[in-house]
Amino acid sequence: MTPYLDAARPIDERVDDLLAQMTLEEKVAQLTSFWAYEVLDGLSFSESKAERLMHHGIGQVTRIGGATNLGPQETARLANQIQSYLIHHTRLKIPAMVHEESCSGYMAQGATCFPQTIGIASTWDVDVVRRVGEVIRAQMRAAGAHQALAPLLDVTRDPRWGRVEETFGEDPYLVAQMGIAYVRGLQGDNLRQGVVATGKHFVGYGASEGGMNWAPAHIPERELREVYLYPFEAVVREARLASIMPGYHELDGVPCHYSYELLAETLRGRWGFDGIVVSDYFAINQLFEYHRVARDQVQAAEFAVKAGVDMELPSRDVYAQPLIDAVASGRLEAAEVDALVRRVLTMKMRLGLFEHPFVDEEQVITVFDNAEQRSLAREAAEKSIVLLKNDGVLPLSRRVSRIALIGPNADSVRNMIGDYAYPCHIESLLEMRDDDNVFHTPMPENVATVDEFVRMNSILQALRAKVGPGTEVRYAKGCDVLETGADLSEAIAAARDAEVAVVVVGDRAGLTAGCTTGESRDRATLGLLGDQERLVREVAATGTPTVVVLVSGRPLAIPWIAEHIPAIVEAWLPGEEGAEAVVDVLFGDVNPAGRLPISVPRSVGQVPVYYGHKLSGGRSHWTGNYVDESTKPLFPFGHGLSYTRFEYRDLTFSSLQVDVHGQVEISCTVQNTGDCDGDEVVQLYIRDPQADVTRPVKELKGFARIHLTAGESARVTFTLSAHQLGFYNRAMEFVVEPGEIEVMVGTSSEDIRLQGAFTLTGETARVEDEKVFTTRVRVHPSVH
């Protein structure tokens, strides 16, 4: 048997053998991709197109499920046809990796659509995140896909940025923990049965100038390491993240796809990353066309190869003839290209593609949106919903006779999903079909709209299914998301005649011009757009008790609503089971326990507003507030209400003197003192009151989502390593210093219930290579 095809041999030996047999053209082919629709005639596989695209092989295939109209079985069939062509019609028989998007589930027809990432973050439940990743893994693998372009590990503190919805929020610890769980779910214990997860966008993409997409990020080195690099480092080191995608933006004049410091020195050198670096779409060419640091595509190829970008996505552009020309002219050494090819081939062997390139087309449908997966989508949606305010209107009574359901998102299925759900990307492909400057490859006419990609109900449908025959539900749209000058008379009449009015407002997520949140849909204001706030005000003016449900992709600045409306529910973009989850929360069948993963500003003028600011931040010295507004957020990080009450008591420490290399157990008792069962999210914060450099006023260092029946209590113990208290000192060394550490436990970053302190002892220790990223949590058996 040819050595590289012998699975019994070590991977390094197999790669050496294969690499030695490859021509430069075959090597370069492994570093790029093509769109799945490029090998289609209509909806059928074209061998003539395959010959043109894959004569020398191919590294990856772009989005068989996410950029075509194919269902799960047809997607699997096309994946098999592509692999069969490579194995039977190319010299070296190297199978391809297929990559797909998976921000809120595998982005394909028939795949389970989970809440968008900001909603998943609001669950504060790492077990849910891991299980979501496992479903995505099962569905992608069954359909013949091997790499997911997720998760976003961008820490974001600017709600103007359109991609906030795709992130886990503002806090590096929360982002890291959500990311670790998601990657473990996706990749599994062994990549031969797993899907390569892709951490993006490396790094600082969510801290862009003006909240604008692709804009520069201005981040000092210490903040870059402690806040923005932290989640990436945690996921690389703890979850063995297998792929990284650099950001489109620049840091201090250096585009991320051109940064040797980021990709070679930090990622591979300091962290020991052993996976593949894939480009964001068209980003290598942007070194020439957009950033203008390269004079032409040949130099763009040189810069990206030297920085360590292993693969160009989504199609052949720079890693094609320009890369070959860069080698021929001596601008690149053959060994530099070999280093990239070696990593790509290694990943394919780690995935087991040479042994198992094909999938079972008949069985694929069994793992697509089955009852168990839909149940998880419901659980995730329920746990993601945040009750922002409640003056006693909620939960609604079963005896209510007339409900007015009003608003642009009340009877919309489309507006319940995030920007990386399947219909949204089909819309974007259609909008940019003929723009070769964007896609560099003409779009085929067979990419068409799909009205129903997975079974979903609107909130109106779910509400009517929930209530009995004795309850009338009167619906009035009122206005569209962006509409101005709307006639609100029908909505006002419906509210006036009702016992309660539920107004569902917010966003439409996507990448196209009619969308209000999503990639490139950045905002200069943060209130409700169009006539939506006018609609809420007019409904409230009828005197009917009013509930506002926000179906939104970002935290919205709604101070008037927060002051005057008795109940506000943040549902985010809750996915395929979101409507049922919202209605269950409204009626109390689900006790809401979502917590904000990002602070909600009062106005755009507060941005950035986040809890973990420095001592000198967060207020205008010496007066405190702005002249015209408070400096406090409208709703703080970690905030979320419940239909029950929780009491905290008995904060204890395993020791009050902890060595700089030791650990401490921090325990407290939490009791449900209300009348109904519910979940509580116990949040652990610390503060280092005196250090070599200034430190944040609070830092999240642990959390636990626990379920308590009415009257039940539990003992929660956090095991905190002293190494988690490290920081970069003035010499840019990661150190743990002796001294007092203040501890705060509460139900949000502002609602602190218990406080204490312990002291770190010993000498200052450099612990760069001994970092600890995760606080272990134990919930002791309940006591009554």
Summarize this structure briefly.
The protein is an alpha/beta fold. 29% of the residues lie in helices and 18% in strands.
Tally of alpha and pi helices: 22
Largest sheet: 7 strands, parallel
Q: Give the termini separation.
A: 67 Å
CATH architecture field of the largest domain: Alpha-Beta Barrel
Write a structural description.
The longest helix is centred in the N-terminal third of the chain and has 18 residues, at 72-89. Mean pLDDT is 96; it is low at 436-442. The protein contains 22 helices and 29 strands. The chain has 3 domains: 3-367, Glycoside hydrolase, family 3, N-terminal domain (TIM Barrel), CATH 3.20.20; 385-593, Rossmann fold (3-Layer(aba) Sandwich); 646-779, Immunoglobulins (Immunoglobulin-like, Sandwich). The protein is an alpha/beta fold and 784 residues long.
Name its key features.
784 residues; alpha/beta; TIM Barrel; Rossmann fold; Immunoglobulin-like; 3 domains; seven-stranded parallel beta sheet; 22 helices
